[in-house]
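Researcher: We plan to redesign the surface later, but first we want a full-length starting point. Tokens attached.
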């Protein structure tokens, strides 16, 4: 497994931020937003941002082992589930991608984390991220909620936001919106994260 992580690093950073483009392989838009942004060779003025354009190398919701990575984190609410689209693995933290993120988060001590999903057209936050969500809403004009509307045992948001108190925001994009329009919105958001947040 190879995870392509790119960094826009300021050696005198104020905050460290993590942005993940593709958790579910059938939700590829985040990779496009990140890669096109990084081609601009922007240099952050204030914060260090770690970008993972594609965490999941498969083209399906689940990874190559048939595990939904967003149900595989070692949370207090993890349960072994049926082997369906939301299968969280045979045990928590069983997947290489999950282990990579757990180790990265322990090592880097991020002040904020953002993931890009689809298709619900909502800004969903976990943990102390209400203020960050309101700032994101200025760029991505979606409603904000702390409840996605269904149980998510073993989720990344629970692991980072609720249990570790890291402001964690999931941006669920509207698949019907023009991809180029969305790209420009996300580029402005990334510039904000690097230079103003």
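Model: Full-length starting sequence:
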């Amino acid at each position: 497994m190879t995870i392509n992580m790119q960094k826009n690093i300021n050696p005198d950073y104020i905050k460290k931020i993590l942005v993940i483009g593709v958790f579910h392989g059938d939700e590829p838009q985040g990779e496009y937003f990140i890669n096109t942004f990084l081609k601009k060779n922007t240099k952050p003025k204030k914060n260090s941002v770690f970008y993972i354009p594609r965490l999941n190398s498969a083209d399906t919701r689940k990874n190559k082992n048939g595990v939904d990575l967003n149900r595989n984190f070692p949370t207090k609410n993890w349960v072994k589930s049926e082997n369906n689209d939301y299968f969280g693995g045979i045990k928590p933290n069983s997947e290489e991608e999950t282990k990579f993120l757990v180790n990265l988060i322990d090592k880097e001590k991020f002040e904020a984390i953002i993931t890009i999903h689809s298709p619900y057209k909502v800004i969903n936050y976990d943990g102390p991220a209400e203020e960050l969500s309101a700032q994101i809403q200025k760029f991505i004009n979606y409603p904000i909620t702390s409840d996605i509307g269904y149980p998510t045992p073993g989720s990344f948001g629970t692991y980072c936001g609720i249990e570790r108190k890291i402001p964690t925001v999931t941006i669920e994009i509207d698949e019907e919106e023009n991809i180029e329009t969305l790209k420009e919105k996300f580029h402005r958001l990334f510039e904000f994260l690097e230079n103003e947040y």
